[in-house]
Amino acid sequence: ALQAIYGDDAGDAPVRLEIASPSEWRFRLGADSILEVFVPRDYPSLQAPTPVLHAPRLGDRASALVDQLLELYEGAEVVFAWVELLRQELTAVEEAVAADAEAAAAAEVAEASADASAPGCCGSPGRCHSRRVRHVGSAPDDPRWRVCVTSGPPFHPPKSGPGETMQAHVASVTCIEQVSWVLSHLLSDRKIAAASHNMVAYSFVDASSGVRVFDNDDDGEGGSGAKLASTIDNKGARDVIVVVSRWFGGVHLGPARFKHIASVAGALLEEQGYCRGRTGGASRSNKKGA
To answer: What start and end residues bound the annotated signal peptide (predicted)?
Structure first.
């Protein structure tokens, strides 16, 4: 399945897989980052693979990310989730660099302008939001993209705070416009919009090209989007978006939160009949988040 997603036949996917040997896999993430994965014979049931990350752009963050990758292992296939988490981190670094450059350029223009203080002028843009703003385009206003969204029951994780709740939502999608509609629909609910995190993953087959389109967004809960993407892949779900809303209850759950996030998502996918066995075929990643 990884060869189909990241191999030579994966179109314009931003990640490339090179299999050096049955026990050594190399994933090229962009121009200067490589994830080496050393796979033991008893993977995935008994022993986790060993990740070695070469990512100059991440600096000191790389070591912490390797620890985070190992936390995602729960006795099941995990390499797809690793790659997606790293892809997301590297994309965030690129976006931050671009935003800093844009802000610096705007500051220079504002400083050089003689009438920078005149009414209607604004200063350089600040970055005051801790989370990325989702842009859903015009799809939410178009009834053509409306689909049925199913929400699962609220789940209260054990050993969590009194207000800790997770809830999964799923819908069938076949295009990015439907993905946007689902997100807009869910976020129009004030309770869901007020959640600490609304984590997203989706996968569908593009009708025009016949290839698989997929992406995920952890909404500030690092690694959760990749975990949801892995859940979709492991369940063999197709043409689906899954969102998990989490209301933080004040008690840090540690790595157990990933298990709960995947559990509520997987349970609703199974209940709604999306699980059809492992996916395959030519694939690609949609670089832009939902």
So the answer is: none
Residue 133, domain member (yes or no): no
pLDDT in tens, 223-235: 899 999 999 999 9
Give one word for 93, left, alpha or beta, with left for phi > 0 and alpha for psi -120 to 50: alpha
Shared domain check, 242 and 222: yes
Least confident interval from 2-16, 159-173, 248-262, 275-289: 275-289
176 phi, psi to nearest 5 deg: -70, -25
CA distances (Å), origin 242, targets 55, 73, 176, 205, 213: 30, 21, 14, 15, 14
Q: Is 152 helix (H, G, I), strand (E, B) or coil?
A: coil
Which one of 21-25, 119-123, 225-229 scores highest in mean pLDDT? 225-229
What is the per-residue pLDDT for 219?
92
Do 102 and 161 lie in one domain? The reply is no
Q: What is the CA radius of gyration of the chain?
A: 20
- Distance, in Å, from the CA atom of 175 to the CA atom of 191, rounded to the nearest integer, reads 26
- Buried b vs exposed e over 235-251: b needs ≥16 C-beta within 10 Å? bebbbbbbbbbbbbbee
Q: Judge if 175 and 99 occupy the same domain.
A: no
Domain that holds residue 154: 139-285
pTM of the model: 0.58
